[in-house]
Design brief:
- By secondary structure, the chain is an alpha+beta fold.
- The chain is built from 14 helices and 23 strands.
- A 6-stranded antiparallel β-sheet has the order 4-5-6-7-9-8, covered by helices on one side.
- The radius of gyration is 42 Å and the shape is extended.
Length: about 625
Amino acid sequence: MLREYQGICPRCRINTGSVGQACPNPDCLTHQYNYIPILAYDAAIAQAEKRGGRIDPWLGRRFDRYLLCGKAGEGGMGTVYIALQAPLNREVALKVMTSISVSREALARFESEAKALSTLDHPNVLKLFDFGFGNMDGQTVPYMVLEFIKHGRTLKKVFQQDIEAFGAMRDDTRLPVFEQILAGLAAAHSVGITHRDVKPENVMLTQIHGNPNFVKVLDFGLASGMRGDEADKTGANQLLGTPNYMAPEQIPGARRMPLDHRADLYAVGVMAFEALTGSRPFPGETALAVLTAKASETFNPFDTPAVQRLTRTQRAFLEKAIAFDPDDRFDSAGDMTAALKEAMAEAGSGSGIGLFKLFGGLMSRPRNQGSGDAGYSTPTPTPTPTTSPILTPPPRPAAFSVTPPGGMQAGGSRPVTGQSRRVTGPIAQLGTPGLEVDMGTRPITGQYRTMTPEERAERLKNRRRRTTGRNMSAARLSEAGDAMESSRGRGEGRKLSVIGLVLVALLLGITALVLVPRIQESKRFDRVGEDLKILSVPLSNNGRFVGVDSKFLLPGNQSDHYVSDALRDGQPALDPWGNPYRVKYSLQNPKAYVLFSTGPDGEKDDCASGPNSDDICVSLGPP
């Protein structure tokens, strides 16, 4: 039997048999466990060991016709399992709502995803096979059966690999991938569906025949109908989506703007920005920092060094794609695709990646284009001489020239006259027999030609007088003294220059120590003001506090409650000083609750206005 069809019980880990059969162990029969493929069991064990836990207890159990064999991942709404559909044993992805307390709102969102997917039939959108409710441990759990993407990888993983290797997404995959993303979204928009959570994690790439990067758009869990049959179930004050990729109109409390398919195109624009530059347009370590930048109409994401390598067409495309106002963006996915092709077509010339692209233009230039192309032109070959060359070294003084006897021949060549001589030894072996070297003729010129022997002796005597004895010693002492004075002056000048530089550096250091902390502290206070403005939106409704049982609050100390962080489940949102944002009943205004930061000292001052109080507070209104 093939290993794929051999099964093992994931509970007792002892009994084996055909995949799908019930394990005969009494305990396994009680909990309705079945054999799963051994390969799936090995993968589950490896996954559990990597996470330092046990394998998922749901593996080996059934939902209707579906046998759960592996765990593909977890999300905000549930868990995705790899399952086998009976009786075909077809691999599918089964998404189960694993929350213990299933709220009505969560069920509505889950059903909305199923309805949205059931109306879509496009190759670049994940297919929905089935939808229903199953029973697990006496609890009714909704599930959806989706197309299983085998050996797929998310666009997030592709970004990480390409940016680490090349600084941005590869040129040869960028355009095909984004064309397919927009094609899938265009199909959704044509039937009135907005995804609302487009991000690299929800784009899967897989390999099919003829296309190594086939795109599937996943997870329409936040999709909403745009034809008026259903109101927005999520509420105006809830933060649904991913802060890095959500549009400004999706931010709670932002300026009222229509929320439609252009929010999806905005998310595609953010991903295209990341693919072209290797960085996100709105950086931030926390969700609040990202949302604050997005909610500000004055923040310019193109004022960064990474944008400088973009061409003018690419920059214009991105500016339109992630415009703050939806009316300034592309009207449809088709229009965005056309502009995308034009922008990506310049990727090779405007946004080269790595050393290959940096020097590729130079290395591919045609050679032999004249003297202006220095270093790459092919020199014109010099014709080979047909006669033996005459080696002509530099001229030598007449005192060293050798004059053979008159009429002497050298190897049968012309008579050697004047100051030419026969070259013998190793040099003669370089040429042919009889090779002659013309040493040149250098006649005696200048004073030595006109002076008599007596004049030459007098000149030599004067030269000795200038360079010997007492005159020489005095000259050397004078030169040494001048050199010492010059050296002493240079040393004093260097010393003064060093002292000046030290004083300037000291002054700059003192200024930095005084001013930089003040500037940083001022920026922290400005950020707290923006944070409080955003955090107060879901906590106040029509001027009244929504209550301490809000899902956006966490239990705090004494009478305080902490505000939860959207990016860190179960963790409080922190101010720039690392202290949690709090909500409490105000003592200064007994009829209202306040949202506040404890300021730099981390101590609560009850939002007092005294000189020693540094609390920063915003009123949420009465309960």
